[in-house]
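User: Show me a protein chain along with its predicted structure.
Assistant: Here is one chain, sequence first, then structure tokens.
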Amino acid sequence: MSFATSSAGPAKAFVAGRVLTGARAFPVQVYIAIVFTAFFLIAAIAPKLLQTHDPLALSLMSPLKAPSLTHWLGTDQSGRDLYSRIVAGTGQSLSIGLGATALSLTIALVLGVTAGLSGGWIDNVLSRLFDALFALPTLFLALLFVSLLGTSVSTLIIAVGLGTSPGYARMVRVQVLSVKATGYVEAAKALGHSPGRILFKHILPNAISPLATMFTLGIGQAIIWASGLSFLGLGVAPPSSEWGALLNAGRNYVIYAWWLEVMPGIAIAAFALSVTVIGQYVQQHLEGRIELS
């Protein structure tokens, strides 16, 4: 008992030291990105903790008020507090980004793995399809799907997810082909392992490992695409406070109230940059270009 007690302290100190050492190794931009990401996650999960006003409360006495101590980011044309509306819209915007990225990577995984494993005419057909769709602008594809499916949150998720999937599918296919050619896969075949065992034990774990990083990077991109659609009037309908919808609602007042466009735009850019910085750092760490000592 005394040995266990005496060894617990040094063990905890060692673990704490490793954590602190790893934390000190983060670049400044990663710290900033983590702080911003944490803020947006809190806003998405518990927006009332951060809101200063009721985001839906109208005030006919204070429309289009500039940023002040009372209204940190100003008010909109209906007198609603813009900061509180941006906070309230964080959950919806992040849901669209997460849902669209998850859908996109799921489609990419299915089609990319099918193309990489099948070979022959199936691979040729899917590869040509990937190339043809990838050649089209993502926004054009998303616009096409929105025009067919209508406007709603689910439509935005589907449109952005389908529009961004061709690029991810190409990456997955290349990754599968690369893993198939490795020595350990050839050795597994020589040892008589079944195709299913080779697929699930060797190919998939190694081929899909980059998807974790792609998922992080894709969330910010998906939010930007969804906000672009909402800005064009093809996203979530008012009075939603989704970030793109806020941009769309404020564009008619940009000459008189610049904050209606600038502040939601800053929120979109801040979140997209934050998750991108974190994703790139994780990718570099996994690839061995960064060592935490």
